[in-house]
Design brief:
Residues 1-10 have low confidence and may be disordered. The protein contains 17 helices and no strands. Helices cover 74% and strands 0% of the residues. Residues 23-472 form the Major facilitator superfamily (MFS) profile domain.
C-alpha cells in the first residue's frame, strides 16, 4: 500500500514517483471523462431526437439540464471537497457521474434522459473542482506546475478527441454508447484514486465556513425557471405556462441576490463584484461563452441536418478549433503577458465573430475545405487569441488568496451564459419545435442565428476594449507584488474557461 499523507499534511508526492504518476492519471481520467462527455453529446443530438421521436426542445434540454445543475453547484462542489476531503468528494462525483451516465444510456424516453442529464451535472460539479484540487493538494510545491501542465494538456487531448469519438459511437453502436463510455472510465478511475491518492482537506474549513446550500438551490431554481420559459416559448408563445416560470425565475434570481448579500459565507460574495476589473472581465466572459455554446449547439445540427454529414464526419469537422487551442493557447497566454490582455480580448471575439459569419456559407452539400474549414479555422484563431488572456485577467484582477474563488465564479458564469444561450437562441432565431427535421427550415433559421452569436461577441469585444486595463497582468508599480498567474497552460474547453486557482507571480 502506498504511503498516505495525514489529512492536514502538506503535499509530499513527487510527480516522478510511481504514486505521483497514478495520482496524475486519476485526475486526468476524472476530468477527461467530464470533458469528453461535454463534447460528445452534441454530436449525438440528431440521432437522439430521431430515436426518441423528440422535438427541438428535448434536444435543448438534453444539453441544458446538464449545464443547469453543473453551473449551479460547481462552487458548492469545491467547498465540499475542502471540508470533507478532496479525494472522497472526487470519488463520489466520479461514481455519481458514471451512474447518471448509465441511466442516460438506458433512458426509455426523453423525460428519463433529461432527468439523468441533470443528475450527471451534479456529478460533474463534484468531480471537476476536485480533479485539479487533488493535484494542488497532493504534489510537492516544486512539482505542481509540471503536474498541472500535464493535467491540462492531457485534458485538452480528451476535449480534442471527444467529437471524433462521439461521432464514431453514434454511427457505430449507437448514441447510447456516448453515455455508456463513461462507465468503464469511472471503473478504471475509482480504484486508482482509492489506492494511490492521499486524502487531503482544508484544515480550517470545517471550523470557519459553512455551505451556502440556500444560495445554490435558489440559483438553480432561478436558472431553471428562465430556461424552461425560453425553451417552451417557441411552441407555446406567451401562455401562462411560459410567463409564470419566467417571472418566477426572475423573482428567485432577485431573492438569490438578496440572500447572498446577507449571508456571512455566501457562495457568490457580492463584494467581489465591487472590483471593477473582475466584473468587467466576467461581462466579457458572459458574451464570449454564450456565443460559443450557441454556435456549437447549432453547428453540429447544421452539419448533419443540412449539409448531410454523418455523426462521425460532423464530429471530425469540429476538430480544428480544439486542436488550435491545444497547440497555441500556451503561446497566446505568453503573448498576453507581454502586450497586456486588452488587445487579445478585443481581437479574439472579433475573429470568432467572423468565423461564425463564415459558417453561414455552410449549406446543402457543403464542401469541407471550401466552406466549413475556413470558418472553423478563423473561429479557432479567435478562441486561441482570447481564452488564455481571459483566464489570466480574471486571476490578476483579485488578490492571490481569492484567485480560486474568482476562477470558480468565472467558470460558473460561463456555464450559466451557455445554458441561457442554448435555451434562447432557437427562440430568437425563430426555430420551431420540428425545425431540425427539415433541412430547408433549419438552414434558414441557422442563417438568422449566426449573426446573433456574432453580435454578442462584438459586444464582448467592445466591453473588453473599454474596460480591460492593458497593465492588469503586471505589478501595479515597481517593487509591488506580482499578480496571480494561471497554472493551466492549455485551454481547450469551448463551454467554459478552466478552473484555475492560479499561482503567485
Amino acid at each position: 500500500m502506498s504511503e498516505r499523507l495525514e489529512p492536514e499534511a502538506p503535499g509530499g508526492v513527487r510527480l516522478a514517483s510511481s504514486q505521483g504518476r497514478w495520482v496524475l492519471a486519476t485526475a486526468v481520467l476524472g476530468s477527461g471523462m467530464a470533458m469528453l462527455d461535454s463534447t460528445v453529446v452534441n454530436v449525438a443530438l440528431p440521432r437522439i431526437g430521431t430515436d426518441l421521436d423528440a422535438d427541438l426542445a428535448v434536444l435543448q434540454w438534453t444539453v441544458t439540464a446538464y449545464m443547469l445543475t453543473l453551473a449551479s453547484l460547481i462552487l458548492l462542489g469545491g467547498a465540499l471537497g475542502d471540508r470533507y476531503g478532496r479525494r472522497r468528494i472526487f470519488v463520489i462525483g466520479v461514481v455519481w457521474f458514471a451512474a447518471a451516465s448509465l441511466l442516460c444510456g438506458l433512458a426509455p424516453h426523453a423525460g428519463v434522459l433529461i432527468a439523468a442529464r441533470a443528475l450527471q451535472g451534479v456529478g460533474g460539479a463534484l468531480l471537476m473542482p476536485g480533479s485539479l484540487a487533488l493535484i494542488q493538494a497532493v504534489f510537492r510545491p516544486d512539482d505542481r506546475a509540471r503536474a498541472v501542465g500535464a493535467w491540462s494538456g492531457l485534458g485538452g487531448v480528451a476535449a480534442a478527441v471527444g467529437p471524433f469519438v462521439g461521432g464514431w459511437l453514434v454511427d457505430g453502436p449507437g448514441w447510447r454508447w456516448v453515455f455508456f463510455l463513461n462507465v468503464p472510465l469511472a471503473a478504471a478511475c475509482v480504484p486508482v484514486a482509492l489506492r494511490y491518492v492521499p486524502e487531503t482537506r482544508e484544515s480550517k474549513a470545517a471550523g470557519r465556513r459553512g455551505f451556502d446550500v440556500p444560495g445554490a438551490v435558489l440559483g438553480a431554481l432561478a436558472l431553471a425557471g428562465v430556461t424552461y420559459a425560453l425553451i417552451a416559448a417557441p411552441d407555446r408563445g406567451a401562455a401562462p405556462s411560459v410567463i409564470v416560470p419566467a417571472v418566477t425565475g426572475l423573482l428567485l434570481g432577485a431573492v438569490f441576490v438578496h440572500v447572498e448579500r446577507r449571508r456571512a459565507d455566501p457562495m457568490l460574495p457580492p463584494a467581489i463584484f465591487a472590483i471593477r476589473q473582475f466584473t468587467a472581465v466576467n461581462a466579457v466572459t458572459l458574451c464570449v461563452y454564450a456565443a460559443f455554446s450557441g454556435f456549437f449547439f447549432l453547428s453540429v445540427l447544421q452539419l448533419q441536418v443540412v449539409a448531410g454529414y454523418s455523426a462521425l464526419e460532423a464530429g471530425t469537422a469540429l476538430l480544428p478549433t480544439t486542436v488550435l487551442m491545444l497547440l497555441l493557447s500556451a503561446r497566446s497566454g505568453e503573448l498576453s503577458q507581454r502586450i497586456g490582455p486588452r488587445i487579445p480580448l478585443t481581437v479574439g471575439p472579433v475573429l470568432s465573430a467572423a468565423g461564425m459569419l463564415l459558417m453561414m456559407r455552410v449549406g446543402v452539400d457543403a464542401s469541407y475545405p471550401a466552406d466549413v474549414l475556413p470558418a472553423l479555422v478563423v473561429l479557432g484563431a479567435g478562441m486561441v487569441t482570447l481564452v488564455a488572456p481571459l483566464t489570466s485577467t480574471v486571476l490578476a484582477s483579485v488578490d492571490v488568496d481569492r484567485a480560486g474563488l474568482a476562477s470558480g465564479i468565472n467558470n460558473a458564469a460561463a456555464r450559466a451564459a451557455g445554458l441561457l444561450a442554448v435555451a434562447a437562441l432557437p427562440l430568437l432565431a425563430g426555430m420551431g419545435p420540428d425545425a431540425y427535421r427539415s433541412a430547408d427550415e433549419f438552414a434558414a433559421t441557422f442563417r438568422r442565428a449566426m449573426p446573433l452569436c456574432a453580435a454578442v461577441l462584438l459586444v464582448g469585444a467592445v466591453i473588453a476594449w473599454l474596460t480591460v486595463r492593458p497593465d492588469v497582468l503586471r505589478a501595479a508599480k515597481p517593487g509591488a507584488e506580482e499578480p496571480c498567474h494561471p497554472e493551466c497552460t492549455y485551454h481547450c474547453g469551448a463551454s467554459a474557461p478552466p478552473l484555475d486557482p492560479g499561482e503567485p507571480g
